[in-house]
Design a protein that fits this description.
It is an enzyme of class 3 (hydrolase). The chain has 352 residues and is α/β, with parallel strands linked by helices. Helix content is 52%, strand content 12%. It has a single domain, classed as Metal-dependent hydrolases (TIM Barrel, Alpha-Beta Barrel). It binds adenine (ADE) and zinc ion (ZN).
Length: 352
């Protein structure tokens, strides 16, 4: 937890979270509980699955994105019933609410469930129930984003996209947009051009993971070939001055995940996440948790880690919060409400 006096301000600051994989909110205790309840056998040949404590310790030794993904896909194999998906998402929303999240745009991976024989509708029903409760009981507005798994063949992604229930959820507006996640280096964005063209034609909003482990030209490929309006992670942008200028000029928002970047060894420490470079270049970004149960922190932990590393001013934090509001895929009325809440907090903070 953050020790700085600004902690109270950061907690109260109205936040938008744009980069959280709901499957990444599965904590080891819940994982073991659901494995038992749903009769799922976890790997016997990996000592990490002996207990919650062992698993948590293993999470602290991830060596790369792929090393993490191995555990992430095994973990989600315990999710079977709509009630499992609902409980998982609700656990996340409770943390988000405690951390001052006002609006959350949450990812999930349909192919990771349908490939195990779990119906898309079951997954959606559970997540939607939690979203509805989050709005009614916590005042958090939400949007759902289906992510496609880039390590799977493109035809598999297209088949999922065209699946009747998936199409229904796109056309009804139950799903706001699509993303692209999973193993990055061997699967450049341009491979998914057809998928993104079709998604755009369906009226979906578009984002993609790019420049997490992959080089900066994956970011330009996501912008040019996939026509995305946001980039998830995007930290490799900092090594490319010209592209950084372009991203700043066209106001593409990056959804940065500092603790994730350290745990997955994309950077050595939080200080190496290019927060200062982005602020100086006028690049818009939000700060997010990515997979909080795996990376040791929810959104406020990420805000605090950034503050400790960069000692940002109230003005800079306000700029970050407002960029997150503007980069959200909610309506203008909701954006105005959140901007007003930021203004009110800053006025009260200055009077204290
Ligand atoms: N950080 C990440 N990068 C790519 N795919 C993911 N799926 C879940 N977390 C991810
Ligand atoms: Zn991610």
């Amino acid at each position: 937890m953050c020790k700085s006096p600004i902690h109270d301000f950061l907690k109260l600051l109205p936040k938008c979270e744009h980069h959280i994989h709901l499957e990444g909110a599965l904590t080891p205790p819940v994982l073991f509980q659901l494995a038992q309840r749903n009769n799922i056998t976890l790997p016997q040949d990996d000592d990490a699955f002996q207990s919650s404590e062992f698993l948590l310790q293993r999470y602290q030794r991830f060596t790369s994105l792929d090393d993490f993904l191995h555990y992430y896909y095994i973990g989600m194999s315990v999710l079977i019933h709509a009630s499992d998906f609902e409980a998982l998402a609700w656990d996340y929303f409770e943390h988000a609410s405690a951390d001052g999240v006002h609006h959350a745009e949450v990812f999930f991976d349909p192919q990771a469930h349908t490939s195990r024989g779990v119906d898309y509708r079951t997954v959606l029903e559970g997540f939607q129930a939690a979203c509805k409760r989050a709005t009614q009981e916590l005042g958090i507005t939400t949007e759902l984003i289906t992510c496609y798994l880039r390590h799977l063949p493109v035809p598999d992604c297209l088949e999922t996209f065209h699946h009747e229930a998936v199409q229904e959820s796109y056309k009804s507006g139950e799903i706001r947009g699509i993303g692209l996640d999973s193993s990055e280096l061997d699967f450049p964005p341009h491979l998914f051009e057809e998928l993104y063209t079709k998604a755009k034609g369906t009226g979906l909003r578009l984002t993609s993971h790019a420049g997490e482990e992959g080089p900066s030209h994956y970011i330009s490929s996501a912008l040019d070939d996939l026509q995305v309006e946001r980039i998830d992670h995007g930290i490799k942008l900092a090594g490319d001055e010209a592209l950084m200028k372009r991203v700043a000029t066209q106001a593409t928002m990056l959804t940065v995940c500092p603790m994730s970047n350290v745990v997955l060894r994309c950077v050595k420490e939080i200080k190496d996440v290019p927060i200062r470079a982005f602020l100086d270049a006028g690049v818009k970004f939000s700060i997010n948790s990515d997979d909080p149960a795996y990376f040791g922190g929810y959104i406020l932990d990420n805000y605090c880690a950034v503050h400790e590393a960069f000692d940002l001013s109230i003005d800079e934090w306000t700029t970050i919060a407002r960029a997150g509001i503007e980069g959200s895929w909610c309506g203008q009325t909701r954006k105005d409400e959140m901007h007003d809440a930021v203004t009110k907090l800053v006025v009260e903070w200055e009077k204290r």
